[in-house]
Write a structure and sequence with these properties.
By secondary structure, the protein is α+β, with helices and mostly antiparallel strands. The chain is built from 8 helices and 13 strands. It starts with a strand and ends with a strand. Bound molecules: coenzyme A. Keywords: Transferase.
């Protein structure tokens, strides 16, 4: 086991995600969650377990939250990551999120004293077969287009912040600079990052799709509150998914709140044909 030393190690962690059958965290979701903000690394501890030059497990400890992936043929690696987290996350409650389909991980968490938290928010993982995709249609006056490159990072970050500024929550920390960091990460492609612009040119909605092999993942999707319920997110999603399909994607997956706290995303994906196939369970360690 050794500590994470920089972005090359994220690439090695993504290689493990690529080898897993239908992982909860797709390589693109890993890139997004590591790079969407700047300056977070000092709060994190990340460790990699390697064999024959490749990563077979990793653990990523954030304040109060642990993520891990491991080779499913080697369930003892889950125990190794959980033991490591006991050392680097001493004291305080911590959470691990698992899909209800991840039985070996759930068993490992229970062995380590984790208990399922039955109240509180949860997420559903939703899937869509890309064989039949409707044509995207932006309302009159709105323009649908892919991101051109880093010159769009400011607009992309601004519309992200508008969509994710929720009353009662701290503002999103996504900035033009952090978005450029996302754009430089594998497997980002500007052609899978779609924007809808309002008639005055203001960015109003977006959908970023990450593609690896045949699997596309949407992360994130959003519409500025001033432009909601006009079909903008749907148009951006369909355009990004058609671009992904042209590059070989056969299925798409997205994660959305499954409880009724914030139902708009789940309703949007369901209206496009996405169906839930698993839900998250939250395990806490006292
Ligand atoms: C989820 C979100 C992207 C939807 O954007 P949008 O542009 O308003 O979505 P659309 O107009 O394309 O909605 C399409 C359909 O989804 C459903 N839908 C969308 N929002 C809904 C809501 N609040 N309640 C119920 N149904 C909703 C409806 O069926 C809608 O069609 P209709 O307006 O004809 O009834 C937007 O609400 C948002 O940015 N939310 C905050 C950020 C977020 O949660 N992002 C997703 C997680 S990454």
């Amino acid at each position: 086991m050794r500590p994470y030393t920089g972005p090359a190690d994220l690439r090695a962690m993504q290689e493990l995600a690529r080898r897993l059958p239908d992982p909860r965290l797709h390589p693109g979701e890993l890139a997004w969650s590591r790079f969407q903000h700047l300056g977070r690394e000092p709060e994190w501890r990340t460790a990699l377990w390697e064999e024959d030059g490749r990563v077979v497990a990793w653990g990523w400890a954030r304040p109060g939250q642990l993520d891990l992936q491991y080779d499913p043929a080697r369930p003892e690696l889950a125990d190794a990551v959980l033991r490591w987290s006991d050392q680097v996350m001493p004291g305080g409650e911590r959470e691990v999120t698992a899909l209800d389909t991840e039985t070996p991980l759930i068993e490992a968490l229970r062995r380590h004293g984790y208990r399922e938290r039955r109240d509180g928010p949860f997420f559903v993982s939703m899937r869509l077969d890309l064989a039949d995709l409707a044509a995207p249609k932006a309302p009159d006056g709105y323009t649908l287009r892919p991101v051109r490159g880093e010159e769009d990072a400011g607009a992309r970050a601004a519309v992200h912040r508008a969509a994710f500024s929720l009353p009662g929550h701290p503002p999103s920390r996504v900035t033009a600079e952090s978005y450029r960091q996302v754009m430089r990460a594998w497997p980002y492609r500007a052609g899978l990052d779609w924007l809808v612009e309002a008639p005055d040119g203001t960015p109003a909605a977006f959908c970023l799709v990450w593609l690896d092999g045949g699997a596309a993942v949407l992360e994130p999707v959003g519409t500025d509150p001033a432009h909601r319920r006009r079909g903008l997110a749907s148009a951006a999603i369909l355009a990004a998914l058609r671009a992904a399909r042209d590059l070989g994607a056969t299925t798409a997956r997205v994660t959305a709140r499954g409880d009724d706290g914030h139902p708009s995303a789940r309703a949007t994906y369901a209206s496009l044909g996405f169906r839930a196939h698993a839900r998250t369970l939250t395990f806490t360690h006292p």
